[in-house]
Amino acid sequence: MLSRRLFLGNAAAAAASVAASGCTVKSESESYDAAVQRTWRHRDGHPGDPTAVLRELVRYATLAPSSHNTQCWKFSIGDGAVAILPDFSRRCPAVDPDDHHLFVSLGCAAENLAQAAMAHGLMAESRFRSELDGALDFALMPTRAIVSPLFQAIPERQCTRSPYDGTPLSGPELTKLELAGSGEGVQVLLFTESSATDNILDYVVQGNTAQMHDPAFIDELKAWIRFNEDEAVRTGDGLFTGATGNPTAPRWLGSRLFDLFLTPQRENDKYAAQVRSSAVIAVFVSEHDDREHWIEAGRCYQRFALQATALGIRNAFLNQPVEVAALRPQFGGFLGIGERRADLVVRFGRGQLMPRSLRRPMQAVLI
């Protein structure tokens, strides 16, 4: 899910290639920084009228993660109600042919909305509309406002796609994360021993190798990469190269560097280093393989990610074992989960924040 590889490989070599070509990208860091500041923030004061409150809840919902940062959602606002609908025009058929990640993303947005609603004195009760492409309706009722640490963490959360520092987490921290990541029909499994995480890494490598040899996967990934700040600001979506510390370039050059440096071995080496620097790997597992449970898995992951953020812990996805359909049953066998579905694989630990992804404007997601 959610974003992983940006034109990977040797960043120094890529930067040297840019310099040698005589092609540079004019820095638009102020515009990018301004977009980051507008996006990743809490609002000062109460929004005011009820419609403004609902729009603010939607804004918080859009700060959720989504596969390749596609932001595959639409929102409608009614009288004391908000609906989250899938936007199938932004689906990723190569990496997500059954739309599993798409509905997980809706769940992530739903959890942000629920946390923000409570902070604004509204209880959010959800109903899944299986008859309408899997929309999620929220009825909002007045209640005592609770500004939770999870709500406070929403603008700070990110998928941090870099190595971590390898330090272990405490027992109380793991307990909080496990509690946050569990829900109705969804369980989170935590793996701390190197024997287990090495086995998971083996499945990541197998899945990554299969994806690296799939032209449709590569084309889809490249289409969602934003190779420079101007491109990231203009689209407000996709995978910004700076978010993994890679250099920026004009799209024509970045695309060529992507083709040059994106290889299975480079990627596999990168994932090995990332897994071995992480404290724990979490796997989210659903009781049933359907859209309603995919949404619930997204909500559980988002609570987990917000709780981790509140504790100063970073996380990132390693979803190759659940994205490659031929590999998923083998991975499930390793986990011992029977007929249940493994939804998400996440590594986490302590590390430095990376540059931010961006979001589209409100008018692009409201219907």
TrEMBL record:
InterPro entries: Nitroreductase-like, TAT_signal. GO terms for molecular function: oxidoreductase activity. It comes from the Bacteria. NCBIfam families: Rv3131_FMN_oxido. This is Tat pathway signal protein. It comes from Pseudoxanthomonas wuyuanensis.
